[in-house]
Amino acid sequence: MTISRSVEDVPLNNFHKLLTIRSGGGSFVDGYVLSIIGVAMLQLTSGLNLSDFWQGLIAASALIGIFCGGFLGGWLTDRLGRKNVFFVGPTIFILGSLAQFWVESAMALFLLRFLIGMAVGIEYPVATSLLVEFLPRKYRGPRLATLTILWFAGAALAYVAGNFILSAGGDDAWRLVLASPAVIGAILFAVRMGTPESPRWLLSKGRAAEAESIIRQVYGPDFSLKNLPEQAEAKKLSVWNLLHSGYGKRMLFVSVFWTCSIIPVFAVYAFAPKVLQALNLKGDWASFGSVAITLLFVVGCIIATRLINSIGRRSMLIQSFLWSGLALLGLGAFNSGSEVLILLLFGAYALFIGGAQVLQLVYPNELFPTEIRAFAVGVGTSLSRVGAAVGTYLVPISLETLGIAQTMYAAAAVTLVGLLVAWALAPETRSLNLQQAASLT
């Protein structure tokens, strides 16, 4: 008997769970490699005699690489397929991280961090589009949000493992710290072996027989192309649809809210010891504070993941920007307060920004059709990193010239912009299938 229900209405199976791990592993490595530079920065600065200019540039180099990698990854994923691009990121993570062990100049480290950033940029469009095109609609939001949790989990591990390596090693321990992501990259490469191509992408390329074979393999022998209803009205789209017929407005929304949600986060991760030091948290307070705040980011994302289907995407985004922005204002106003107050305010920011963080991967994957989904995610990734790179580069300069209070106020202003854009443009997509969410009508 033929099952008439859509593949988006089936229960979550073991394939979906494994694919979440395969896709989420990229986010985990991403969080690790982008955060590990903050752990190594103080010893690295001494080891390579870095000026403030090179400190900022090296901290921002991976973000610049993400800008290039996002465009490239989205373009390649939509043209060559999700499966073919799925192994590019892990390969670069391994080779680029190992090469950092032998760097002898600021320029060499900048170039390697740029290359690793490109791998991160490639990961976002390929991993998220592959995952969302297999997931049932009920689990789409929570599972995509889980990737953000894994990002912060990777960041937390970076601080724990990085500080352990620094304490156990000598003056050159920073080299081992920067090379350590190669281990995770190798595990990720192995885990991804055997991943099938997306049936939706295959259909967009006219490869119906292959698509149907994978559908039967994943969902069972009673399923076929008839259970993928959105393909009944599939039409050829080009990347220019991002700027025409309504997709330009969606791209604006995704890029701006994504940028505003990551600028303060990336700046904090890149220079966590310096920021906490400027807020009068020194010694053990600074070390434990970095780990505690990172763990609270994870907790905030976990809470947001559990609430995403109940309170909706739009409400979550607005509330997240509102309360996290107020916490940043508090850090600016009470920058000379006690250690406990500073940690409470930083903790509040970490918890409340979780809503905006998990929606970074949910919204762009839901608002664009299969033919341009990966490219849209890549563009959003790239454009958001422009602001993040500039913000990260300016952190040490801002701390030196303007002080911690004005730096925190600037972060709060960025969050306010995100709030206004969310209020004006954020749609609600929680109950829609992919075809409905991506439709302009």
From TrEMBL:
Residues covered by the Major facilitator superfamily (MFS) profile domain: 19-430
Membrane disposition: Multi-pass membrane protein
Keyword 4Fe-4S: no
Source taxon at top rank: Bacteria
Stored PANTHER family: SYNAPTIC VESICLE GLYCOPROTEIN 2
Family from the record: Belongs to the major facilitator superfamily. Sugar transporter (TC 2.A.1.1) family.
Protein name stated in the entry: MFS transporter
Organism from which the protein derives: Pseudomonas schmalbachii
